[in-house]
Amino acid sequence: MATSSVSKGCFVFKPNFKKRKISVPIEDYFNKGKNASEDSKLRFETYQLIWQQMKSETERLQEELNKNLFDSLIEFLQTSHSGLWKNSEDWSCEIKLREIPTAALILGVNVTDHDLTLRSLTEVLQNNVTPYVVSLQAKDCPDMKHFLQKLVSQLMDCKVDVQSKEKESVQVIQKNVHYSMDSLSAWYMSVTQKTDPKMPRKKRTFSSQWQSPPVVLILKDMESFTTKVLQDFIIISSQHLHEFPLILIFGIATSPVVIHRLLPHAVSSLLCIELFQSLSCKEHLTTVLDKLLLTTQFPFKLSEKVLQILTNIFLYHDFSIQNFIKGLQLSLLEHFYSQPLSVLCCNLPEAKRRTHFLSANQCENIRRLPSFRRYVEKQSSQKQVALLTSDRSLKEETQSLLENLHVYHTNYFLVLRCLHQFTSSLPKYPLGRQIRELYCMCLEKNIWDSEEYASVLQLLRLLAKDELMAMLQNCFKVFQSSSAKELGNTAKKIEEFLAQFQSLDETKEEEDTSQLQSKGLQKTDLYHLQKSLLEMKELRSTSKRQTKFEVLREQVVSFVDSLVREYLLPPDTQPLHETLYFSSAHTLRQHLNAAPRIALHTALNNPYYYLKNEALRSEEGCIPNVAPDICIAYKLHLECSRLINLVDWSEAFATVVTAAEKMDANSVTSEERNEVIQYPFKINSTTSKSSQPAVE
Amino acid sequence: MLHLENMVLCRESQVSTLQSLFGERHHFSFPSIFIYGHTASGKTYVTQTLLRSLELPHVFVNCVECFTLRLLLEQILNKLNHLSSSEGECSTHITCEIFNDFVRLFKQITEAENLKDQTVYIVLDKAEYLRDMEANLLPGFLRLQELTDRNVTVIFLSEIVWEKFRPNTGCFEPFVLYFPDYSIGNLQKILSHDHPPEYSADFYAAYINILLGVFYTVCRDLKELRHLAVLNFPKYCEPVVKGEANERDTRKLWRNIEPHLKKAMQTVYLREISSSQWEKLQKDDTDPGQLKGLSAYTHVELPYYSKFILIAAYLASYNPARTDKRFFLKHHGKIKKTNFLKKHEKITSLVTLQLLTLVGHDDQLDEPKYKCTVSLDFIRAIARTVNFDIIKYLYDFL
Fold first, then answer.
1. Which of B271, B352, B362, B382 to mutate to test the interface with A (most CBs of A within 10 A)?
2. What ipTM goes with this model?
3. Average pLDDT of span A265-288
4. Full-model pTM
5. Which helix (DSSP H) or strand (DSSP E) does residue B35 occupy?
6. Distance CA A412, CA B376 (A)
7. For residues A419 and A438, is the Cβ–Cβ distance under 8 A?
8. Chain B CB contacts of A236 below 8 Å
9. What sign has the CA pseudo-torsion A417, A420, A424, A425?
């Protein structure tokens, strides 16, 4: 774009608003894959539906998990605030230091999740305690001035009453004023008094409790605030506490010791700090997995590798639930994008209905599924022909297979939970302490072939009665809670076991003990003692008469073992499992474990990789002059070793850029060339240039 | 003046010095007075009560609140304006951004009838903040009398000695007045002064005596002591209220309160437990040992690789580089190689958590240097969770 200005420098061109963005409907992106036609729209819609359901489920979970914390916080705020305004003539109240009520909220190191938690906290507080809830971030508050500015501007936005439109103009003017704590408390007075006479109905709930609602200030990342700002703010606001009822909430990622590290005693003595601990993120993960994956509520499943990647990123890298859910969303999206048969990944009745409408192409896709091929090979030759040639019989078979898959999952999760009850409290946790570890192992292969499983059975055979009974009781609860009919008699069986254990108590096997006692040790010399001990040992090992309890225990163990062998088959043994399981771990890793440095290098070094412009395609070692300037500069800088001569660099840059007009190289005036040379470094210098009038 | 003596205890000499400095209302006083002394040595209180009870025209400004020059100057001027105008008048807000304007506006305001012919006092509390503001501010305030040609005295209150204020370029020397710390006798007298109406003064004085016996060695801050006295007084009265002892049973009362106060010293005084929690504990009569203080929560859960990075950072920060060979060649392969892509991201997140800090210059983009800031106990706890015996690798423990 041209300007009429004579000066050199940077000019700002406002974008032309007439240009309209050509918006592509999102579902069209699904078409661009290799599997162009196959129900892409339907797949996209299914994806959206399932994701919506999963998302609302996670949100619900979050709310549930935070409820305890929020409730105790609200209670703290209410009591401390009412204490603040207790207008008592009590002798002690006058002398006691006025402390700012402060809640130290330990949020854990998963910083990315904090925003969400604090946002919902804000919402909860606004609904229950006070309309004035403000949250500040350290990066917005390098000094007191900005701190107060942010605080005030957010506070003024907090106002709930809508009817005052002329007030807003007042606010705009006020925003230019220099803020001090004085003006802030004056503002507070005016606001609280103004709303008093004609209270809107909505506000009555707070106002009837206290004539003046407190101001809650949330410091999102306590660790990053500078000591000086925090100190000054606390000192100032403690002086204004009687007219500006402030309550602080510190969001702490590490440990509360940081309060003492940031604030000297003189300042921390102005605070009345109470500690609140949020839920541990590992527990949170367990719940999320439990409700999203270990359930038949959502048809979508993850393969072992994918689940491993997601949990590893969580445990080894960031502890962030948000990222985990993002990863889950990505796998869901990728599944629906890359697997044409994912149309069948929905609830059972709907999947059966959709089977009817499968196109011939899709039927072919089903026949190509490895799991289905394996299944066909096991059928009689007549049936094989029918399945491979007739679409109709294929569809019918698919329906019944889908139903089998559903039943398989229902049983699978029940038995998995049951097995987890047995393994989770064994010494050294051979199959893991968390159900997710057990799940991963079961997904991977036949669990009963593993060494760990064998050792679990060994350990189970050594359990004491009360332990075993407690486990059985838990299992019974698991089975009872479900409505699956197939495993109904399992619950009954467990009940029987329990009853048998109970009855063991009553009929104590006395013969065994009496036998031992009769052979009890008499006073003998050492030789005889050894001899009799040896005898007893032999007796035990040879006869090894099991007690009734031991027999029963053995039965229980073999019962569990049979359950596991029957129901915990890995999913890849199931036909059509590809429709529900997302297994492309490689793609996921590529997307989630991004390496920004490498990506940047690729973009700068080989712009064709991302831009896909044929003009940019170049052979090795040559720099195309049509490449973006920054790429040229970067490539030239790569040619130098540690130190770069700036003049050489810019000269080389100019040579490359003007290379295209080689034939009329002479026509390039030196001034123009100078302009090119200076160009890469102009951006830095324009700020100083623009302040002076151009001299040209 | 008897009234004043009742309000200000143990500061007789300072009060009389100030009074003689102030002189009669219309007398010119010393242009600037610098008062310093430790926290809670009565500087603010004495000045304020003196100016109030003598009904001298004064402006009281706390410099912490005035983080910009403009705020400070405007606050002084507006308060003065408020003083000069009679009650009914609604004064407009004065704006003032530089000291030059301040002098001009100050002259205008002090023209007013009720400020004329008497000394106007400007008190700047927490004056040490002035040092961080514009360089001309402090010298300007020191000779405000001369600059404005008005009868004005500026009083500075600070916890820092005057020598640390004096600018390099030299300035007008103020009158320096030192408020010494209260002695234990003084503290006893002042604290006993505010005894509750239900109990006799002697009873409360005995309590204060015990309190000072416990706390005097660690804390001489009057405000804090008063706070602690009030917090723990109900516990002291407990035997009396229950009828187990009478007010003169000092021994019994002492035995009741002494361990309690010692516990308070370790908890409430350090703000490990908040005052409200302490009061609640006292009311419920539960053992304070059950409530964990803030410092008890030192455990930090970190992702697996972050733990290793932190351990590595700790080793690198505290072992001399030349010993690397010695530690890592011998036990080669003991430390897991944690080669992964998200390394840098993780370091930045550790920095935001203040477990690492950036050392050296900010502009060194290519190879930033960090230092580990966690304590030995902390790193040992972390190392234990990943089964890494850190002591073996630390040079200081060889």
1. B271
2. 0.88
3. 87
4. 0.78
5. strand B32-37
6. 47
7. yes
8. 62, 64-65
9. positive
